[in-house]
């Protein structure tokens, strides 16, 4: 390896060590570059060349991993967000899935001038109905537990003045990305942005759905734990109702919520499917020796 290449490698090695040590401070590009005595522009280019991704994306991956570790220690979501350098718990979910709720003004429009494309696709858990606006997925539902006609009717009820269009060419790549990439590594790739969801619900429902997005893949929480996290310790039933109204199967992970006793609890698309999804998700993140039982 040429001498200059060795120097560049050592710089990036030093930068990565710095990021690992200071992930809780969320260093800026300027901070990173200063550690190896390079301009931000030169550092960005060199980092991409050696690490295969941008410094920002690398830091996001470190942030996610640190967040998962802290959440598994039964720390509160707000504590975790602060400890990994995010401004608050509302930002934590943005690294996985970006959820954008319908504004009051948009709600009044009832989907006027809005086109919604939809399709049905095979998944490991049965046929999935997916509908999308220009801003993201607005509905996803397993139709082996209902029907296409039912889902279209529900979609039209939620957005009565919208135009529905069958367009599997648009929805197919989204579904493929949902299930053919390991869920916990979706955002480690610089080739993909976080999924965008465009949902309609009450403020409380949206708050519950945001809380669901913060549960790490492969982890489970109880309805009461989720209610406590939201600051409504006596509202487990209301939380359960909001979970039941989840418009986006799989991406808003209501399958990660169980009863205090450890029982699976209900699931709109059937308890057996809930069990299957939980098992599949754990297998995606389990080390091979754990799966093999050795």
Structure, described:
- With 294 residues, the chain is of the alpha/beta class.
- It has 14 helices and 8 strands.
- Strands 4-3-2-5 form a 4-stranded mixed beta sheet, sandwiched between helices. It has a two-stranded parallel ribbon with strand order 1-6. The chain has a two-stranded parallel ribbon with strand order 7-8.
- It starts with a helix and ends with a helix.
- It catalyses: a 6-O-methyl-2'-deoxyguanosine in DNA + L-cysteinyl-[protein] = S-methyl-L-cysteinyl-[protein] + a 2'-deoxyguanosine in DNA; a 4-O-methyl-thymidine in DNA + L-cysteinyl-[protein] = a thymidine in DNA + S-methyl-L-cysteinyl-[protein].
- It comes from Alkanindiges hydrocarboniclasticus.
- This is methylated-DNA--[protein]-cysteine S-methyltransferase.
- One of its GO terms (biological process) is methylation.
Brief descriptors of the model:
Arc Repressor Mutant, subunit A, 294 residues, alpha/beta, 3 domains, four-stranded mixed β-sheet, two-stranded parallel ribbon, Double Stranded RNA Binding Domain
């Amino acid at each position: 390896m040429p001498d200059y290449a060795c120097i560049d490698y050592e710089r990036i090695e030093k930068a990565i060590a710095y990021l690992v040590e200071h992930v809780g401070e969320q260093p800026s590009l300027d901070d990173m570059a200063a550690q190896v005595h390079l301009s931000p522009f030169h550092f960005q280019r060199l980092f991409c060349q050696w690490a295969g991704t941008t410094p920002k994306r690398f830091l996001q991956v470190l942030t996610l991993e640190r967040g998962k570790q802290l959440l598994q220690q039964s720390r509160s979501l707000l504590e975790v967000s602060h400890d990994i350098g995010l401004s608050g718990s509302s930002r934590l979910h943005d690294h996985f899935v970006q959820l954008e709720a319908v504004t009051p003004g948009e709600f009044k429009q009832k989907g006027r001038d809005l086109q919604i494309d939809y399709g049905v696709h095979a998944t490991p858990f049965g046929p999935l109905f997916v509908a999308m606006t220009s801003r993201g997925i607005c509905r996803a539902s397993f139709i082996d537990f209902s029907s296409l006609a039912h889902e279209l009717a529900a979609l039209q009820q939620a957005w009565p003045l919208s135009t529905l269009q069958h367009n599997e060419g648009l929805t197919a790549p989204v579904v493929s990305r949902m299930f053919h990439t390991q869920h916990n590594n979706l955002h480690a790739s610089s080739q993909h942005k976080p999924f965008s969801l465009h949902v309609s619900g009450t403020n409380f429902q949206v708050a519950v759905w945001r809380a669901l997005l913060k549960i790490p893949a492969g982890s489970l929480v109880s309805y009461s734990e989720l209610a406590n996290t939201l600051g409504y310790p006596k509202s487990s039933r209301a939380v359960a109702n909001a979970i039941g109204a989840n418009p986006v199967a799989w991406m808003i992970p209501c399958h990660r919520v169980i009863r205090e006793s450890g029982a699976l609890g209900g699931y709109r698309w059937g308890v057996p499917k809930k069990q299957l999804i939980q098992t599949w998700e754990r297998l995606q993140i389990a080390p091979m020796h754990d799966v093999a039982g050795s």
